[in-house]
Amino acid sequence: MTQTDDTAIALRELTDTITTGEPLPTVLHRVCDWVISIVPEATAASITLVEDGQPRTITATDKVVAALDLVQYRVDDGPCLHALRTASTVRADIARVRGRWPEFCDAASAAGITTVLACALVLPVDEVVASSAQPLGTAAGALNVWSDKPWAFDPVEAALVTMFTGAASAVVLTARRWERAGALAEQLRTALATRDLIATAKGIVMARRRLNAEEAFGWLSDISQRTNCKVRDLAVILVDDPDLVEFA
């Protein structure tokens, strides 16, 4: 089986997992595993995602490269962050970029890493903004591939890795849309529960104080303002003890 065949199988499997509901880190770790198995010179892989405006390693195949990601986050620079910020692919030979990223290169050399290939995970701009209060760039993250071999990752291997970034981007996009849909559904459930609770409290006020619906809600609002208690919280109290209406 050729490298191209392996890549096609991997991408098909990753595409199939998009709708399975697996946790995002699990699926992205599979992306890293496939990259290592298909790209001969790849020693390890990690994936950086921007969350709440900050880069974070969501998964890594080796603790060593996860630590190298942290070095970049701490100094706020490095090939992986540069790829993310410019929405591009960055190939860095550690021996050649030491002047540009000295602290990162020192840590990489100490860990035995000689080459890194970082490919941005690009999402639609509105998706990046919706998922991060302060996005670092137009990319949602980066797929980082590491090697202990000098001058690793020729153009063909770089192209293979880039193909995996497309699959990884699709996984991230789907996961974030599901996350937002779930959050909206929860907000709707909360809103409906609050509405029902206030309606029950309003009914109690109408019965105990002989008011119509508008007057009862006005009464609740007035008590809420005078006691600095939210209408919802006031409704909880009155539903729990309706007799309090008589003493308010």
Give an overview in words:
With 248 residues, this protein is α+β, with helices and mostly antiparallel strands. It folds into 2 domains: 3-181, Beta-Lactamase, CATH 3.30.450; 187-246, Winged helix-like DNA-binding domain superfamily/Winged helix DNA-binding domain (Arc Repressor Mutant, subunit A), CATH 1.10.10.10. 59% of the residues lie in helices and 15% in strands. The protein is built from 9 helices and 5 strands. The chain has a 5-stranded antiparallel sheet with strand order 2-1-5-4-3, with helices on both faces. α2 runs antiparallel to α7, α3 (63-75) runs antiparallel to α5 (102-110) and α7 (155-209) packs across α8. The longest helix is centred in the last third of the chain and has 55 residues, at 155-209. The radius of gyration is 27 Å and the shape is elongated. The N and C termini lie far apart (80 Å). Residues 127-137 have low confidence and may be disordered.
